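Note to self: the last two entries modelled the partners one at a time, which told us nothing about the interface. This time every component goes in together.
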Amino acid sequence: MLILARKKDRRIVIGDSIEIVIVEVGNGWAKIGIEAPKNISVYRKELVDEVVAENIRAARSATQRNSRSAADAAGHRKTTAKAAELVLQAELMKEKGE
Amino acid sequence: MRIQTTRFGTIDIRESSIVEMPDGMLGFEAYKRYVLLEEEQGSLFKWFQCVDEPSLAFILINPMEFFPDYEVELTDKQVERLGLESAEDAVTFTTVTVDRARGRITTNLAGPLVINARTLRAMQIVLSGDRYSTSCLIGESPTAAKDTARTAAAA
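The predicted structure of the combined assembly is written out below.
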């Protein structure tokens, strides 16, 4: 990893379209400005990590239900046959208020 | 085509209804093909079943049903990647987490799923800023999907 020491208001250029500026420095934190083209996603890493963690919880909670009792599973099998593909167009129409 | 699912057993789906996620869901990048299912017509809760892994599925809702002011802003890159020609083609869903121990049902408004309804290409978007949380409460203490829908409808 490249590590650079920068003073306040100094900049770092990445490639030909991204600039990072140190806006303010405090005790144990730094305020950073990022100038990047609109097509570059800039995320706080912990936010991405949070979404990953929530996806894992969501997937686990979605499968949990069928790992319950055999009776439950039988009940679910009944609804299984009815599981129909959702036609997205219907959802689309609803959003358009048609 | 026939696919295996843990929850629904073997089901028949049309290949044309497969939702393609070039980047997968975050944390599940290897899985790129899903199909949207519903157990009961018109249910608020949909299933996003992975085509290639029987045990992988997500429960989805249309967040607008619960949070009418909810907004997703896409970057140019995301619009391009989704092949969106019109904003009207974008359908937004959010994942649902059922926490049985705490009796809470939440949805992830910070990481919505946007589907191009015309091409069935989809992406999970991460919304920057502190506006939306990954676990927004939508219902309490149900034990099955049907109760979930009822609680949600009553809320």
